Amino acid sequence: MATSLARLHRIDPLGALVAAVGAAALLWLPFVLFKSNRILPGDAHSLMQVLPTSAALACQLSLILIALVALGIADARVRLAAALVGVIVVAAAVASAANLLTPAGNKVVRVAPGSGFWLLLVALGLMATDAITRLRPRPRPAVRVLMLALFVAVAGAALAHGSFDNLSVMREYAVNAGRFAHEARQHVWLALGSLAAAIVVALPLGILCHRVPQLRASVLGALNVIQTIPAIALYGILMAPLGALAAALPLAARLGIRGIGTAPAVLALFLYSLLPVVANTVAGLKRVSPAAVEAARGMGMTRWQILTGVELVLALPTILTGIRIVLVQNIGLVTVAALIGGGGLGVFVFQGIGQTAIDLVLLGAIPTVALAFSAAVLLDALIDTINRTRQ
Amino acid sequence: MISIDNLSKQYGSSTVVDGVSMVIERNSISVIVGTSGSGKSTLLRMINRLVEPSSGRVLIDGTDTAGEPAHLLRRRIGYAIQGNGLFPHRTVAENIATVPRLLGWDDTRVRARVVQLLTVFQLDPGEFAEKFPHQLSGGQQQRVGVARALAAEPAVLLMDEPFGALDPIIRAKAQDDLLDIQRRFGTTIVLVTHDMDEAFRLGSRVAVMSRGHVLQYDRPAALITRPADPFVSQMTGMADRAMRLLSLTSAGEAAIPGASGGPAIAASASLRDALSELVWRGADSIAVVDGDGTPRGRLTVAAILAHGRPG
Q: How much is the ipTM here?
């Protein structure tokens, strides 16, 4: 009794959750949906139903082993490896399910990943991120970037090889390939362009707020108000003045400044980007050791030298944290810009919603999530690199 | 030589430094001591114009400091503060090189100076040059702070409570090091502290400040034997003033001719230490020797006590 209690005590709580979610997904939820065309609701199929028995059993056995690792093995490296193997197993299963269910040469039927697949992916993702945070020593920033690159390379190679071509999302991609590249570029451009413009304005504004404390409350307050306006409402608010501007100034219109399109999208994203960068610049400068600034002044550094050589350098990690927030936030918000003709991957999301074609929605949503995730990993690695040299 | 001439600083209606005049001799350590809020830091910071005086002048070697841009003035004057103010993102070598770089020294000269200073401050250049400040102990950081202040060979070094953050043993060592450094480089040092023991230990002259005024600026012994103000006596301490006085004279200075048995005391030790030794041994006299062991004479209890009262 005592030993079984002790053993129970050693069961990893998060592992238990991961195993329970995975088991439920595998037992009760459809692994794939088979639809006779892209907008009809599909028939649910479980893993056992679509894969040959031996393959399905192998697949389930490996998932059970991974669940056991999640429940009982504490070593974070083993847990991470198990979770990644699980992702590969589940991805391979869904790809072969699509290949098996699609009659050769048929371009009309759709095989979409089912809720069981998505839930398995969530459980494995949870296990992997938890394992990464448990790794000791923490992986060096370069290693984390390398892991991301490896992941992108493997996924890219599988996509390029055509392993997932029979999957519904890739069917939508095949139809939209030309537009996809264009909208993806537009998406990145909108997110990065508005961020760059925001940094150019927010950094000096943050420095000013630091130097003039009376200004701080009002500037941050005003930016806070902007932050509370929902994205769609802000696009709407900007439509009228920009439209009027375009009507009054033909030059502005020729430069692309109009009530709808790229201009209001960039402007809205720019406005949203200001608060995190200004607030983090102020916070970063505030944290700089007063003794270091005093010593710098006492040794005869000019105000400009102190600002650029001491204050901003020391505040850099905090400022970059603000920039990270903005970049991830922008990559998400750009999606909404499609509503006012701003383009970006949101185009597919809203078209998909309009056509009740969930696969088209995913064609916009999955790359957006991947972009945001990669941006977060890259900037976190950069911030960590800076912090490591100074502790 | 630094001449402070009727220097005042007002913030609004409050006067922090009020008409201070004093002359700081070249090649000496002057200590400004006072309670917090006495204006001692403000007075110090007016010398390198971190605080601009409201009225009065500061002359360094006869030249008015108001005549050149403040940041250029500060590059000629060393400055070390409590908590050292090292740049956490720069290595020890880069920290020390700050002012030489500002002055545009070439790389070879900067490197040579960094190595020289690290060696003087007993920090092995090979081990410490590329370290970051957070990798050093408090005492090592403080030494780097002073080394940085001396990097561009300033004739004047200003120090604002430089040892305030150190524990007593490391502080005593840092004070001894500073005396060595001063002798070695011949720097004119002005140091601010609230610690009277530190003032007596370091200062060839000590200025006692209260409420913006310098009450007395004199040799340490004179502050005890001829206090100009009751506050000065209060600061120097009435109860142990005899012992303090003894601690200001070395055994070598006070030695009288003759010999004595038993272990000898070093000529550099203070009379206070010599007396303590005699009390401990229950002896009446003690031999005094130089650092190399040459006899310098002896000390008797009576001879020591004669130094412990106004003469």
A: 0.86
